[in-house]
Design goal:
alpha+beta; Jelly Rolls; 7-stranded antiparallel sheet; 4-stranded antiparallel sheet; 3 helices; binds N-oxalylglycine; binds manganese (II) ion
Length: 222
């Protein structure tokens, strides 16, 4: 086997283990936190992609769907750029999430139909207040995926994702946004927030959706 084929081979085995872990976690508790889980080469090329992108390609993040797009810097203060597969890194990411989608559909019969994702840059002290990614009956986002691209993130850097069990949970579980960490959770179930960080913080947030199209109404992209 060539060195590259060997590398791919190991990656595929690692992915299968990770995908199975995610499936089990989702089944048992609805969320899955996996430090150091995204393949290192993929994480690094995504990181390089963000670092080399022009600042102008990012836009202030809004809340809600395109037609009700609201900017509210009291709720969130990050900048985003949608991933469309224009770059090699973006394509690799979409291949990886597509493999995850296929795995979860076979394993859990989730009927995941499409995927959308964006890079997000949180400047120093930026945040995203407690929110849900979807509300029952209002959206067809079913599964949220977040991946982190931050080298050498320490506890004192802050910027944790806090995942709450329900509306009454005030403590939550904290996830450090360290390089390669992958968090997956049911979009309607878990309120969550991003705490302010003491340095720039880069993440990818993505959502798997079920097919919400009916009659002539084509489901809007976001
Ligand atoms: C989001 C989100 C979490 C993170 O974009 O909806 O919750 O840790 N992001 O970046
Ligand atoms: Mn969110």
């Amino acid at each position: 086997m060539s060195a590259i084929a060997e590398l791919r081979h190991f990656d595929a085995e690692d992915d299968a283990l990770l995908f199975e872990q995610i499936a089990q976690d989702i089944q048992e508790k609805g969320f899955s936190i996996n430090p150091c889980a995204l393949p290192a080469a993929l994480t690094e090329s995504l990181y390089q992609q963000v670092v080399h992108m022009h600042h102008a390609e990012f836009e202030a993040a809004g809340i809600g769907r395109a037609n009700e797009h609201n900017l509210n810097e009291f709720v969130r203060r990050d900048e985003i750029c949608w991933i469309n597969g224009d770059s090699a890194a973006g394509q690799q990411w979409l291949q990886w999430t597509s493999a995850l989608q296929t795995y979860l559909n076979r394993r859990l019969f989730l009927g995941l139909f499409s995927f959308e994702s964006h890079f997000a840059i949180y400047g120093k002290q930026d945040f995203y207040k407690r929110h849900r990614d979807a509300f029952a009956g209002e959206s067809n986002r079913v599964l949220s995926v977040v991946a982190y691209l931050n080298h050498q993130w320490a506890h004192q850097d802050g910027g944790e994702l806090v995942l709450y069990k329900d509306d009454h949970d005030m403590e939550g579980s904290r996830v450090l946004p360290t390089f390669g960490t992958v968090a997956v959770f049911l979009s309607e179930e878990f309120p969550h927030e991003v705490l302010p960080a003491n340095r720039e913080r880069i993440s990818i947030a993505g959502w798997f959706r079920v097919n919400g199209s009916h009659h002539e109404l084509v489901d809007p992209p976001r």
